[in-house]
Design a protein that fits this description.
The chain is α+β, with helices and mostly antiparallel strands. It has 3 domains: about 5-65, no CATH class; about 80-125; about 125-165, no CATH class. The protein contains 2 helices and 10 strands; from the N terminus they run E-E-E-E-E-E-E-E-E-E-H-H. It starts with 14 loop residues before the first strand and ends in an 8-residue tail after the last helix.
Length: about 170
């Protein structure tokens, strides 16, 4: 497989068509904005100049552009899973952008559409991030019930108790 230099790809490129053989008719890499497979043909739109491309699928193969995870800077890309604040944070999927706002649908009920700007949404948190936030909140709550003169020492003791499995039990 040929190496693809994604740094040379236009910002609108969603994939690359890579030629299985180099010749006049099939350049080695062509960046595209979209593509469709029609049986044994690949049809695509050039990301460079918008021209239509068409070639047999035995001459080209498609490579989707690698996507780095969205960490909260700028608008989340279409297809990104995010958390949307609707009373509580819900899992949602970004389906588009409109005038600087994000358009997303509820992951559990795609009939529910959300449109808004930050702080209505945030990056989707991993289970590890959620557990770390819960741990931190529990430690701070425990620390609030203690009367240590050294708050750092109190936090260390509360963290040790939490890590040992101690939890608040509500009767």
């Amino acid at each position: 497989m040929k190496d693809i230099d994604w740094s040379k790809a236009p910002d609108n490129a969603a994939a690359a068509l890579v030629a299985t053989t180099d010749n006049v008719h099939y350049p080695s890499v062509e960046f595209v904005t979209g593509h469709h497979d029609y049986g044994c043909m690949i049809r695509a739109t050039s990301a460079v100049d918008g021209r239509s491309l068409s070639a047999p699928s035995d001459c080209w193969f498609l490579v989707d552009r690698p996507v780095s995870p969205w960490i909260g800077e700028g608008l989340p890309p279409v297809g990104e899973i995010i958390e949307w604040l609707d009373g509580k944070f819900l899992k949602a999927v970004v389906v588009g952008h409109h005038q600087g706002a994000v358009v997303a649908v509820d992951d559990d009920d795609p009939r529910r559409v959300f449109i808004g700007k930050k702080p209505c949404y945030r990056p989707f948190r991993t289970p590890e991030q959620i557990a770390a936030e819960e741990r931190r909140a529990a430690i701070l709550e425990m620390k609030g019930h203690l009367s240590f003169s050294d708050y750092r020492e109190a936090e260390q003791h509360c963290a040790a108790l939490y890590d040992a499995g101690y939890r608040k039990v509500t009767p």
